[in-house]
């Protein structure tokens, strides 16, 4: 058998040079550069990736270094005018409340001097009604704004997560990312109204109340301020503890989501393994940790709220005692004391509003930090300078030149200098032992990942010179596990080409022999296929994936073990279809069945992350020991398949 250290033996085909892959974490692809300058730029980009760089595309500082209030203002800015309207209405509500004690003092004075009180009573009634009406309107406007902030945050986060680099997704837990979209963004609702507006309006109302109290009686105001400052000192010690507990609670919610997603994603395997109780304990443990931290945050928040309430009770008793003494000495009259006591009662609301706003801000800042962490995960480049020919254009050519790649810096290399070339049209098969790096070739072509060294060229131009979405629109890709999404069969078939005509859809169904299945389904192509296609067999899911790829009218068709779950009859029919497609497009196939390999125009033999040889079946059987051994094994596998076809 040929040593893995030997260079690939070219039996058939040539190796054109190609441009290198630029750094995928940059915000946009730089314009082409010539010669050594361009090469140096590409190598710097690869060096960044090899160090595991996860710098966000915005190149902004770490979320921990960005104040939470700045993050919050960024979400609120598009709705600042409605938020301002709600704040003004809240202030008007507070102003109406502040006027009540003054009217009450006038009423008491009128009663004491046997004057008519009709005007004072009407004024108080008008203030009460206005307070209620304006308060209701202000509350609605603030809630509307808060819901809009949550919607905007969710839209932005979902859009970003759908465009994440696959390498970033590999390092994340899907359940935790879902928690950031759901529970973390929900907290923005409270932090927008209770914290941002509550702190502003509550603070202004508190200040205005103290000013009015000073206008009524400066001595009693000084007594009240002393109590308020003492309570504020205690609350200042409590607030950081609320922040820490809230962040841990949100992290625990994310961990619970990740654990639950892991469990539900493999529920059949868990049931078959009798592991329900172990997985149940893991989810319960995460839920209990979230409960513990939430209770801890609630404890500190309750302590802060009750400290504010206690301070007001102390202030009331103190004002009553000092004020009573001042009334006894004639320093103030009874009407002034009643008005001041009403202000003390009124002071309770803005103080509790400010304390609640501070406590809610601590909870919201933890959620904001988690949302921002997700938004800073590296995404794919949005645009590139050169347009790519769309579906239906001439078939594409592909060339790998000394490509090196590994999935993470702490993992071994999957590709050790892979080099091969595929001309336009025809079928190229990739064969080799498991782990040779065949599927990784397809992942690199799709730009799910970028290589750490070497270059990949499409039509003689580096892949990074093309727009990512345009690149993928020209490729039909059938994965090994042929995933099917929840929804109808039609939704799945048209996933890659929603504008496909009905006759194209029918032709794809017939080509993949799904037409017989559709006739049996209760609602035809509009029948729901269940979560992950559970209502379809493995072979049916595979044929759905193939039909979906064909409907894209691709310039390049990638088939990764596309017939592994088909019976002999359906496999033979699909082989003929692929052969027809290969006459007008470029087809790359990862295959283990000899029946698929022998019909290829060229075969690339891979072993341990290297290309050993390239040639036809006949040439490789005679010239490469590894391929000859694989072919001999596949002859036996083909015979077994013929005798015992799979049920589809």
Please characterize this protein's 3D structure.
With 648 residues, the chain is an alpha/beta fold. The chain is 61% helix and 9% strand. The protein contains 20 helices and eleven strands. It has helices at residues 35-50, 68-76, 80-112, 118-162, 166-170, 174-216, 218-265, 267-272, 276-329, 334-375, 438-445, 468-473, 489-493, 502-511, 515-520, 538-550, 568-582, 594-597, 617-623, 625-643; strands at residues 9-10, 398-405, 415-422, 426-431, 453-458, 461-462, 475-478, 556-560, 586-590, 602-607, 610-615. The strands form two sheets. The protein has a seven-stranded mixed beta sheet with strand order 1-11-10-4-9-8-7, with helices on both faces. Strands 3-2-5-6 form a four-stranded antiparallel beta sheet, with helices on one face. Helix 17 links the parallel strand 8 (556-560) and strand 9 (586-590).
Summarize the structure.
By secondary structure, the protein is an alpha/beta fold. The protein is about 60% helix and about 10% strand. The chain contains 20 helices and eleven strands.
Contiguous low-pLDDT stretches (5 residues minimum) are 1-61, 635-648
Q: How far apart lie the N and C ends?
A: 38 Å
Which structural class do the helices and strands define? alpha/beta
Mean pLDDT: 75
Instruction: Give the strand tally.
Output: 11
Strand order of the largest sheet: 1-11-10-4-9-8-7
What is the percentage of strand-forming residues? Answer: 5-15%
Q: What is the global morphology?
A: elongated
Helix fraction by DSSP (H/I, runs of at least 4)? 55-70%
Counting DSSP H or I runs of 4 or more residues, the number of helices is 20
Radius of gyration: 35 Å
What's the main sheet like? 7 strands, mixed
């Amino acid at each position: 058998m040929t040593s893995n250290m030997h260079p690939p033996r070219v039996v058939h085909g040539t190796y054109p040079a190609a441009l290198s892959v630029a750094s995928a974490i940059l915000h946009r692809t730089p314009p082409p550069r010539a010669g050594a300058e361009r090469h140096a730029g590409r190598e710097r980009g690869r060096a960044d990736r090899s160090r595991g760089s996860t710098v966000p595309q915005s190149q902004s500082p770490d979320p921990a270094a960005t104040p939470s209030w700045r993050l919050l203002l960024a979400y609120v800015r598009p709705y600042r005018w409605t938020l301002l309207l709600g704040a003004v209405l809240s202030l008007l509500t507070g102003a109406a409340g502040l006027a009540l004690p003054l009217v009450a003092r006038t009423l008491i004075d009128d009663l004491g001097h046997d004057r008519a009180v009709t005007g004072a009573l009407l004024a108080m009634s008008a203030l009460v009604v206005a307070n209620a009406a304006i308060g209701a309107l202000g509350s609605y406007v603030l809630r509307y704004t808060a819901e809009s902030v949550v919607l905007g945050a969710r839209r932005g986060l979902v859009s970003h997560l759908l465009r994440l680099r696959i390498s970033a997704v590999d390092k994340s837990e899907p359940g935790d990312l879902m928690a950031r979209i759901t529970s973390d963004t929900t907290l923005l609702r409270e932090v927008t109204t209770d914290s941002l507006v509550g702190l502003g309006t509550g603070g202004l109302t508190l200040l205005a109340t103290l000013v009015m109290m000073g206008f009524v009686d400066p001595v009693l105001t000084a007594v009240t301020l002393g109590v308020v400052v003492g309570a504020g000192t205690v609350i200042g010690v409590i607030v950081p503890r609320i922040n820490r507990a809230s962040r841990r609670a949100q992290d625990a919610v994310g961990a619970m989501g990740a654990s639950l997603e892991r469990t539900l994603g493999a529920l059949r395997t868990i049931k078959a393994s009798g592991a329900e109780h172990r997985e149940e304990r893991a989810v319960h443990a995460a839920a209990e940790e979230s409960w513990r931290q939430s209770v801890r945050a609630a404890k500190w928040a309750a302590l802060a709220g009750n400290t504010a309430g206690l301070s007001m009770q102390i202030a009331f008793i103190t004002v009553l005692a000092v004020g009573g003494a001042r009334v006894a000495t004639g320093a103030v009259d009874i009407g002034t004391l009643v008005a001041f006591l009403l202000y003390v009662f009124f002071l309770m609301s803005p103080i509790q509003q400010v304390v609640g706003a501070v406590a809610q801000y601590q909870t919201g800042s933890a959620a904001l930090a988690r949302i921002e962490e997700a938004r800073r995960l590296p995404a794919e480049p949005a645009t590139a300078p050169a347009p790519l020919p769309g579906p239906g254009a001439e078939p594409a050519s592909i060339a790998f030149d000394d490509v090196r790649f590994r999935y993470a810096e702490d993992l071994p290399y999957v590709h050790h200098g892979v080099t091969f070339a595929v001309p336009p049209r025809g079928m190229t098969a990739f064969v080799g032992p498991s782990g040779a790096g065949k599927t990784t070739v397809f992942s690199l072509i799709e730009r799910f990942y970028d290589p750490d060294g070497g270059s990949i060229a499409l039509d003689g131009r580096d892949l990074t010179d093309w727009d990512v979405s345009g690149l993928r629109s020209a490729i039909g890709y059938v994965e090994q596990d042929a995933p099917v999404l929840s929804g109808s069969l039609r939704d799945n078939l048209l996933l890659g080409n929603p504008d496909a005509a009905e006759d194209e859809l029918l032709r794809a169904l017939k080509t993949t022999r799904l037409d017989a299945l559709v006739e049996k389904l209760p609602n035809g192509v509009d029948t729901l296929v269940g979560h992950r296609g559970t209502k379809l067999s493995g072979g049916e899911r595979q044929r759905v994936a193939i039909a979906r790829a064909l409907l894209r009218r691709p310039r390049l068709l990638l088939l990764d073990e596309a017939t592994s779950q088909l019976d002999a009859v359906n496999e033979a029919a699909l082989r003929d279809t692929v052969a027809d497609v290969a006459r007008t497009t470029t087809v790359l196939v990862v295959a283990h069945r000899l029946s698929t390999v022998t019909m290829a125009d060229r075969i690339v033999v891979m072993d341990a992350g290297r290309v050993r040889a390239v040639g036809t079946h006949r040439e490789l059987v005679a010239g490469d020991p590894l391929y000859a051994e694989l072919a001999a094994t596949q002859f036996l596998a083909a015979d077994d398949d013929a005798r015992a076809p799979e049920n589809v």
